[in-house]
Task: structure prediction
Amino acid sequence: MKKTLGAIRKAVKEYNLINDGDKVAVGVSGGKDSMALLYGLRLFQHFSPVKYELQAFTLTLGFDNFDLTPIKEFCEKIDVAYQIKETEIGKIVFDIRKEKNPCSLCAKMRRGALHDLIIENGCNVLALGHHADDAIETLFLSMLYSGRISTFLPKTYLSRKDIHVIRPMIYLPEYEIKNAIIRHNIPTVKSPCPADKNTKREEMKELMKHINKLVPDARDKIITSMKNKEQFNLWF
Result:
């Protein structure tokens, strides 16, 4: 976890992601990203210059075949409080609303439910498992499908909820997360969502694989460009 912890420490320092006394909630889907983040933040507690509490939360979406036992056992192993909230979000999106493009509505409903859940449990910070490749994919999705140059921020304050949303793995490439999961035997749970691996984001992943083959340091260059606000040469 050395590279994972290094990336987390860099992001926390540069963007002031966590402060003394924060109660940090990790949104855990069961996928590799959120599980690596949970373990990383737990290890980071041991040497972090700021002291914070840590809890983990999972929303079920009403799908079958979603066994969270491995996550429960892992949270017990690393001594992190874990709570599961049952919801019917998946059934609403797919069965009742029958959305043709379900991801947007599902994400909106999950965000709202997760925000309310962590507030009920006294947390003031929500940590999400987005990484460097996610940020780049979001940038390309915005440009190609919305005509905007936009991606998510490392830290966002939600004034209506009075919570901060942070992304401590913003500097970590996806392949390092995959390596960490394997090396440290971190359990994961496959998503039961019918749209899993069949989204526009998956298309962006394939596009970035092609770009990275052509330009080996493309990922680092794009991340640097997103931080370089002084040198935007756009058609304002």
Remarks:
- The two ends are 43 Å apart (CA to CA).
- The mean pLDDT is 89.
- The longest helix spans residues 102-120.
